[in-house]
Design a protein that fits this description.
By secondary structure, the protein is an all-alpha fold. The chain has helices at residues 6-25, 29-46, 51-63. The chain has a domain at 6-64.
């Protein structure tokens, strides 16, 4: 199985979440198909056969890549956006 990029995995998760929200808000044949399509894509990307497994695997895959990019670090080594400020 090829490992999806974190960005592609996040897009698939967002697409699934958006489809579920829209289907819960106003269920139609189109929104049901969108949920099924997004679920299928997520399962294929994670190598699973069920959405709960796919969500767990996706979380695990993204959790393995939670390092801060060197581009996002300040010269002093702290990640950007931290709440510790020196006066």
């Amino acid at each position: 199985m090829l490992t999806p990029s974190p960005q592609d995995l996040r897009v698939a998760l967002a697409r699934y979440a958006d489809a579920r929200i829209e289907d819960a808000r106003r269920s139609t044949a189109a929104t049901s198909r969108a949920v099924e399509d997004a679920a299928y894509t997520l399962c294929v990307m994670t190598g699973t056969q069920a959405v709960p497994q796919a969500l767990h695997v996706a979380d695990t895959m993204l959790g393995m890549r939670t390092t801060v990019s060197p581009v996002l670090r300040r010269p002093g080594g702290a990640p950007r956006g931290d709440s510790l400020q020196t006066a």
